[in-house]
Amino acid sequence: MPDVLLHQWEISPFCRKVRKVLALKGVAYRTEEYNGLKARNAAGLSAAGKLPVLDYDGERVQDSSAICDFLERKHPSPSLLPAEPQEKALALVLEDWADESLYFLEIYLRFEIPEVRPKAIDLLCAGRPGWERAIFGAVLPPRMRKKLRAQGTGKLTREQVEKAFLDHLDRVDALLGRTGWLVGSACTIADIAVGAQLAEVRRTSHLAPRMDERPRVVEWLARLPEG
Asked: How many of the other CB atoms lie within 10 Å of CB of 225?
């Protein structure tokens, strides 16, 4: 078996995405956490300075999509992608939608909702000295707000963001109505990428009860590989 180390923030949906792929592929791995002020060390792991980063038998790969593609080549079965070309294209489009659009709704719902933010900060500082939480609580929300405003989601009202998220959730629910999976008849990278984002919202957001009103989505999340 290969020696595999995942450098991660456990709270990150992108790290959850990689963990789910590792679980689907049956690849044993270890994790190194970068919670709290240890996050500063992540900058030296890769050119991008972001997590996740995967060490695989001496090879280092950064970015969740690149890591998933790398694991697909190293462990092609079970495949992350449908065999049919149009379904394969759709699965990759949904992965990109989850990573580049749904992600910002998740960030807003985690850091811009006052009653939710403390839980997110606690998770980001898990296992670290208590005083680091105060630093993160003061520094991180303004940084996330700036990031959200630059992308556009931060310029919306809370009501607009909540409606956008629930509308997307209904579309996910509709896609699941055909086979129980987003694309084709088996778990693909689309399910893993979208599911990773939704699982993090459900873990921390005040909208979790609204998600639970959609039993098809809840059942699908439970069927995804652990991550």
From this structure: 17
Q: pLDDT tens digits for 179-195? A: 999 999 999 999 999 99
Number of domains in the chain: 2
Distance (Å, whole) CA 26 – CA 24: 6
Of 41, 74, 107, which marks where a domain is finished? 74
Residue length, the chain?
227
Residue 100 per-residue DSSP state: I
Domain that holds residue 36: 4-74
Closest CA to 27 of 224, 188, 225: 225
The pLDDT of residue 47: 85
pLDDT at 227: 74
pTM of the model: 0.96
What CA dihedral angle connects 16, 21, 23 and 29, to 10 degrees?
-80
Query: Are residues 222 and 121 in contact, defined by beta-carbon separation less than 8 angstroms?
Result: no
Same domain, 127 and 207: yes
